[in-house]
Amino acid sequence: MGKHQLSETKLYVLDTNILLHEPFAFLSFQEHDVVIPMTVLEELDHIKDRRKDVSRDARTAIRALEDVLKDAAPEDMLQGVKMPQAEMGRLEPGKLMIVNDHYVDEHVGMLPGGENDHRIINAALHLQKVKAPRKVVLVTKDINMRIKAKGAGLSHVEDYRTDQLIDDIRFLTKGFEKVEGDFWARIKNVSSMTEGRETIHTVARDAIPTVYINEYLLDETEQFAARICEIHQDSVSFVDLGRERLLARTAWGISPKNIYQAMALNALLDTDIELVILTGPAGSGKTLLALAAALELVIEKGFYDKVIVTRNTPEIAESIGFLPGTEEEKMAPWLAAITDSLEVLHKHDENPHSSLNYIMDKANIQFKSVNFMRGRSIQNAIVLLDECQNLTASQLKTIITRCGEGTKLICSGNLAQIDSNYLTAVSSGLTYIVERFKNFTGSATIHLNGVVRSRLASFAEENL
Questions:
Q1: Which residues contact 137 (CB under 8 A, 6 or more apart)?
Q2: In Å, how far from its chain's centre is CA 70?
Q3: Which of 71, 205, 348, 428 is the most buried (most CB within 10 A)?
């Protein structure tokens, strides 16, 4: 690689949280070189032996690094070991380097003390000085660390964006398309056919150019409603649902309160849709609708054998502890939203407590920890994954790949309420799967607009 070409490539310094977020992240920088400070290896070493879910990612990252560096001599590791060849056209793959940041000479502007974050930042500052004019970039998901690095004089600091599919959450797919005016008034040619109780219309592709499979269509007449079922190069086919019929659909005694809930219920009750993603503000009805549909499909229809309920919380995602109690008993406090929704569904029963226990047994509702979902193969079940805005893309992939034949997965979350220290609305795993699955025939996404929990909750959502 010539001197001019070398100056055009960048030098990326990776923080520990990048390798915990994506263990193979160091392979994603194509022709650019990657630096792993010694402090990062030490942090991975401390994490790998903990009895926590994140320990698996640490061990995976260590093994992946060892696969690249196993045959390298010490001087090669300092100069850089060539990465595995990827499909990069004419560009050569970058190099992987290990830097001993414990012996970086301090100079004016470097951060004092022996904190691990400071050592990593100082290593990047040192490289910025000795490798100039080559661009040195620190990559970390820690927002505070990015601020400190810039304050210390590091010119280039970034978040890890390889698994980020959009730059602005406003552009996230909502799962429905609103057409101005009367939809049918703008259609010149249409062919129709009837399949059972459904009427399917086919129109020219340019009539509705930006749609995805299983996306819903609405117009301003408050009569038309449809769902895309086929997309071809020159034509689009959709099922005519009709707003009135859509709003009249019920599940376990629950009726939709608006058209967004009606679209969600339509997708939830469709057994041909294996993944339903519900997004929206707190109080929009995501959990209640998902649970009502699950009870309808398991108990009334008998399409599935059981309901598995799980969610992510900072503590429960890593460990549910070793104190006495079953997994369900330990998970119960974290799944209060589910039990609250069950109580709402049975508030009119004469003895709601006994009815609640009966229904939980009848539907075979199981509370499971996300930590124990790895390695399983879930068959003929409905899986409710709540609060998944706090999961990374790789964590969601782990859960989705557990779903076997006859299983329906319902993911729900509010991207305005992210508790993770290292995730934002655009980097959340929920955002990732919304965008990644929008062209998959077995999935549907619905953003529930409006808060229906109460007048108080609606005012708070809009004004606070």
A1: 10, 11, 12, 13, 156, 157, 158
A2: 34
A3: 428
- Let me know if residue 89 belongs to a domain: yes
Q: What is the rounded distance in angstroms from the CA atom of residue 293 to the CA atom of residue 383?
A: 12
DSSP string, 220-275: TTSS-EEEEEEE-SSEEEEEE--HHHHHH--BTTB--SSHHHHHHHHHHT-TT--E
Please tell me whether residue 14 adopts helix, strand or coil conformation: strand
**In a domain? residue 426:** yes
Q: Using an 8 Å Cβ cutoff, are 417 and 389 in contact? A: yes
Residue at which a domain ends, from 158, 181, 199: 158
The alpha-carbon radius of gyration of the chain (Å, integer) is: 26
Task: For residues 420-429, give the mean pLDDT.
Answer: 84
The residue segments making up the domain with residue 346 are 272-463
Q: Which CATH number fits the domain that encloses residue 447?
A: 3.40.50.300
In terms of Cα–Cα distance, which of 400, 380, 396 is closest to 388? 396
**b/e per residue 116-126 (b: at least 16 CB within 10 A):** bbbbbbbbbbb
CA distances from 275 to 133, 375, 385, 391 (A): 49, 20, 11, 16
Is the pLDDT assigned to residue 130 strictly greater than 80? yes
Classify 391 as helix, strand or coil.
coil
* pLDDT of 329: 56
**pLDDT value of residue 383:** 94
Write down the pLDDT at residue 88: 47
Domain count, the chain: 2
Torsion of CA 129, 132, 137, 142, to 10 degrees: 10
97, 125, 158 - which closes a domain: 158
Q: 446: exposed, middle or buried (C-beta count within 10 Å: 0-12, 13-18, 19+)?
A: buried
pTM metric for this prediction: 0.78
Of the pLDDT bands very low, low, confident and very high (cuts 50, 70, 90), residue 91 is low
CA 419 to CA 432: how far, in whole Å?
Answer: 17
pLDDT category, 49, cuts 50, 70, 90?
Answer: confident
Residue 240 covered by a domain: no
Residues 279 and 148 in one domain: no
Residues 6+ apart with CB under 8 A from 419: 313, 314, 390
